[in-house]
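User: For a benchmark we're assembling, each entry needs the component sequences followed by a predicted structure for the full assembly. Here are entry 17's components. Please fill in the structure.
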Amino acid sequence: MRRRSSRDALVLAIIGRPAGLPGPERVDLARFWERFDTLAPLHVRAGFGLATVAVSVIAPRLAGHRSGLASLDAIAADALVRRAAANPVTRPLLDAATIVACFAYFDDDRVEAAVRGGLEVAIDEGEEAQS
Amino acid sequence: MSASARIDGRELRTGLRLGAEVVVVGSGPAGATVAAELAAAGVAVVVVEAGRWWEPHEFRPGTFGAMADAFRDMGASMVVGGAPVPYVQGRMVGGSSPVNGAICWRLPRDVHRSWLADDGALSDALPWDVLEAVTDQIENRLGVAPTDDAVAGAKNRLMARGAEALGIEHRPIRRNVVGCRGLGRCLQGCPEGHKASVDRTLLADAEAAGAVVVSSVEVSSVITSRGRAVGVQGTADGGGAVRVMASHAVVVAASAVQTPALLLASGFAQGPVGEHFQAHPGVSMTGRFAEPVRMWEGASQGHEVTGLRHEGLKFEVLGMGVDLLAARVGGVGSDLAHHIEDLAHHADWGAAVRAEAHGRVRLVAGRPVVTYQPTARDVGRYRRGLRIMGEMMLAAGAETVDPGVRGFDRDVRDPRRLRDLEDHGPRSAAAFTAAITHMFGSARMGSDPARSVVGLDFQHHNVAGLYVADSSVFPSNLGVNPQIPIMAIAVLCARRVAGLDLDRPATDPVLSSSHTHGVSNMTIPGPIAARLELEDLMSMSGAQLWGLMQTGGRVDPDALAGQQFLGADLSMGRIGHAVLWETFRKAIVRDEEGRGHRGWNVKLEQRGTRGDQVPKRKRDGSEAAFAHYRVRTDGERFGWPRGFRVATYFDYGTAGNVFPDGFGFTPVVTVNGDDHDLVLGWEIFRVAGRFVAPSMFWAIRPDGPVDPVVTPPRAPRP
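Assistant: Structure for entry 17:
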């Protein structure tokens, strides 16, 4: 469970919060991970696993946070992942992880449809309050 | 098409044995073409494909879904070299053709000339006028035509605008589509079936002419007998073993990676197999335009820039799903979110490089591994290609472009900065984001066996009856999209297989073709039986023998009774053979008391399998008989190891031997269908009530009537 939470957090942080589209936290990532864990080749899963450990687990602690990426608020998570993208050590990991994160986010038909259709998606007040 | 001509490997849980005149491995552009050409000539063809059938309605818009389900390794197979580069291969009926960009190019004349300049004998193997005529027929069958402007979409028009502004030759891409509505989902599979991929055209033609397609079966080895290819073995996705015997030829058309891998796995390592792997690595450039581009609309890849082909560069609009485009536009977190909001304004173009690098395909732990390193000149082409693409994008109205080069600007607005990229940009291939989609040369054809794997007739230099039909036979890469040249050359291969003149199509009325399965009008020099012999099994691996076991036929003890057999151990290796034996004799008789059949073994002087067999003798002069057994047919009641099911087995435990009862069993199968000319046995032991099954096999063939009949040391139990 903890591992899944870390990779969910990585996806959420990578994608950010695109305006007008369903927030990544509203996307059913469990369905994507089930297919990813079954179908992705070993080197892809291993690469994303490494990115998860590096960015979700280790980087927050090196930055002085007491817990991992999953426990950070949206602003802190965004700052952390952007800092990791600028770091020559973690950047290659994030480049590959970004592909997986985009696959995960857009695997939700609502997101795909929203981009293709150019529709505005209502953001509920709860999300606005959280951000 | 007939549903009964299709066998779905996902439903095969037990062994399947088929026969044909020609078996074709792979159903992509090459395999489908060979099957269609041969089937039209009345040849009995079985096509074996690792992937499954897809119906148009199954294709989803996302790239991940397509890559995960329809591509090998989720489209992330990686070459090993200085920079990890993915190579993309479809794994479905139709090969990559249902999920490619539908781009069609004829074989360039300058490429053909270069092949002949290197090996003049290829002029007879690949005559230009015949290739042109065949290409005309293929293009007509696939409905190849320039992309209609009505479905081009903004992304394709922008490339035209940019190329025009720079004065570089460009044109709408010629595509194999019918009734395209510009859905922009070629690379995910057209959900409305508008792409004339080979599964819907040439393979359909093959099926209509009687070909059988076995899908979801990965072929693992080619079977040979006396140096001739006589079939293939593989494993179905459902778990069952599959064996297809071919009375005339085996044609391998599995791609420039899978074909050499199969040849190596089958033990055909002669010549440069796997070497001279060549490709078209591609780099790409994204650009942001003020006007909407909406990359997901319009023909996926509808426009190309051809004016720099002489430099080894060809530019085309890239088609991809929204998910992959989002991953391409750069940034993470709030930066990526902003780009995703803005996705409708981004374009992504690609430059395919006719790379000069040669790589290699090897087999490591049973899997193909490709090593490939672009040369310095190839990397120079990367930089030049990106410069030209960036200039075209800016000329077309892009506000900013992103070359995606590590260590270089991600936001370029000034063309002079692009010149800096070409002149002073990174020299390492690792700095560039590239991908490979076209591969060639890894089983090249030629007149010199030292420099080629197959000869001018596409036949392997060392294995009769084994042909290769795909792009691995190409002497070099092309610099252009290869599916049409692959098909054209595959037609010539098929005609060679069938013994037809190269310029005589299979449907020529001079040949009275029959579509009846199993009837052929080929000019074959005498019938060739696709049968295996004892000596063939002696060179097989344990995996291959296990495959034969699973696809073997039922043994009838009555068919064995009264005969003695020459046997050969297939598993103990040289040391075991030196210490114990390699050859032995078995004898089987009807039980004197009417209780079925029994048999025994006899030690032989070790003289190999040819010539007279001489039994060893005991001190009393009698034959050195040992290990008596009963032949039983109630094997279905056992839960044999590995889920194996078999009726007939030898039971060593109740036959009056001196070792414990219930210790040894040998399930047996016939190898050549219903004939009992070759029987394969699998040694199984029972210890503490559980079966133990090392991969130990033997095989026997008839060697005359039993003489003498030997009595077991103890009275056998019923």
